[in-house]
Amino acid sequence: MKRIALLACLAWSLASAQPNAALASAQPPAPLIPVASLDVARYMGTWFEIAKYPNWFQKKCLSDTRADYQLQAAGTVQVTNRCRKESGEMDQAIGEARQIGPATSPKLQVRFAPAWLSLLPFVWGDYWVIDLDAAYQLVAVSEPKREYLWVLSRTPTVSAEAYQALLLRLKAQGFDLERLERTRQSSN
Fold first, then answer.
1. What are phi and psi of 3, to 5 degrees?
2. Could you read off the pLDDT tens digit of each residue along the chain, which spans 188 residues?
3. What CATH number corresponds to the domain at position 122?
4. Which SS3 state, helix, strand or coil, does residue 18 take?
């Protein structure tokens, strides 16, 4: 009788632990933490896409994806995204970014909708710098929900060591590395 009671207790403990373990793994990750500060002027220039979470607005991009950032007189940033389509032609989208918060804030918002729509809040997307090396050569960009992720570099390739170290930091921030897709960069 004691054995049956012990087995029943053990079975109940295991059964009740299962949902708790499932709930623990279903818990959302901690809030996304951007870098401490961003020197926007230093961030300007060309960044090559090394990897990304696949998304609907880049489906036509086959390779050679890059972003060019240019500081404007009004303090905004002109964003020019380019990529090579399957036809071999380069596709281009021009947008605008604005910094949210103080002058060193790593939180920006970007829009690619026409300027006349810029008063509508839903045309702006969050662009948070979440990892950036001290030399401003390798960066990871995302947004609070972690639905989008880009790894960018000043050069079309990045060392395996730097990339792996960045992946470890992204994993620690709660990113699913299985979703990350490498971007092909050609030599031209």
1. -65, -45
2. 333 333 333 233 323 333 444 444 556 679 999 999 999 999 999 999 999 999 999 999 999 999 999 999 999 999 999 999 999 999 999 999 999 999 999 999 999 988 888 888 888 999 999 999 999 999 999 999 999 999 999 999 999 999 999 999 999 999 999 999 999 999 64
3. 2.40.128.20
4. helix
Structure tokens at 135: 């030399």
* Domains identified in the chain, total number: 1
- Decide if 70 contacts 81 (C-beta within 8 A): no
Is 1 within a domain?
Answer: no
Is residue 105 included in any domain, yes or no?
yes
Which residues make Cβ contacts (< 8 Å) with residue 72, sequence separation at least 6? Answer: 78
Tokens standing for residue 111: 């829009």
The token pair at 122 is 């839903």
